[in-house]
């Protein structure tokens, strides 16, 4: 049984990939808090409609061939947990004199929000796996 074929696990995998990528973007914002003219970024909110649109684009897009194993895949064709998410500029509520728009308090709120959502998704993933394990046990075994 391939868990990626089960829609629930596929959506959870996409959600975890989004949250992982969002943590990376927020960490990058925090790391550049003192960089002049750095604009804070964030990811577009994760939505089911966006996931469906990405799947449609992937089916209709032409695929570049990699002729050798050492060739890199184009950025728009990479398949991973964090692929397919685009960063957007955060609405800046405060810009310093050097042009930096990172507000550390906002970034920490985003980080804790992403962490709580990630923990919730992991817990839901584990509970779903436990239900599958229970269903796969032979009758009479507890």
Question: Can you describe this structure?
Answer:
The structure is a single chain. This protein has about 140 residues and is mostly helical. The protein has one domain. It is built from 3 helices and 2 strands, in the order αβαβα. A two-stranded antiparallel ribbon has the order 1-2. Helix 1 packs antiparallel against helix 3. The chain starts with 6 loop residues before the first helix and ends in a 6-residue tail after the last helix.
Sum up the structure in keywords:
142 residues; two-stranded antiparallel sheet; mainly alpha
Sum this structure up briefly.
The protein has 142 residues and is mainly α. It is built from three helices and two strands.
Annotate the secondary structure layout.
Blueprint: H1 7-31, E1 41-43, H2 48-60, E2 87-89, H3 104-136
Antiparallel strand pairs: 1-2
């Amino acid at each position: 049984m391939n868990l990626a074929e089960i829609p629930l696990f596929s959506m959870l995998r996409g959600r975890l990939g989004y949250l992982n990528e969002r943590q990376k973007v927020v960490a990058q914002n925090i790391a550049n808090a003192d960089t002049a003219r750095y604009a804070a970024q964030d990811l577009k909110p994760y939505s089911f409609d966006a996931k469906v649109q990405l799947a449609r684009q992937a089916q209709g897009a032409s695929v570049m061939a990699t002729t050798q194993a050492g060739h890199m895949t184009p950025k728009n064709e990479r398949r991973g947990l964090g692929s397919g998410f685009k960063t957007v500029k955060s609405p800046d509520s405060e810009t310093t004199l050097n042009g930096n728009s990172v507000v550390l308090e906002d970034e920490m709120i985003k980080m804790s929000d992403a962490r709580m959502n990630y923990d919730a998704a992991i817990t839901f993933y584990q509970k779903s796996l436990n239900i599958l394990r229970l269903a796969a046990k032979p009758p009479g075994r507890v």
